[in-house]
Amino acid sequence: MTIKGDAARSMAVTYLAAACFSHFRWFWGLLPSYRIFTAGIVVSMILGLGGCAGATYFVLR
Hints:
With about 60 residues, the chain is mostly helical. It has 2 helices and no strands. It has helices at about 5-25, 35-60. The longest helix is centred in the C-terminal third of the chain and has 27 residues, at about 35-60. The two termini are about 15 Å apart.
């Protein structure tokens, strides 16, 4: 499936959220910085859900 325009931007946000999730989970999770670890995971999950919802909206609109 090829997406363009606003849906592509929303998917880029979703990919960014996946990268941030991996970064916070497997980099900050190894260090004793639990506050950054927890906040980063939560923010990246919210960002990912928003990106998926936006992409779905723009594709099905």
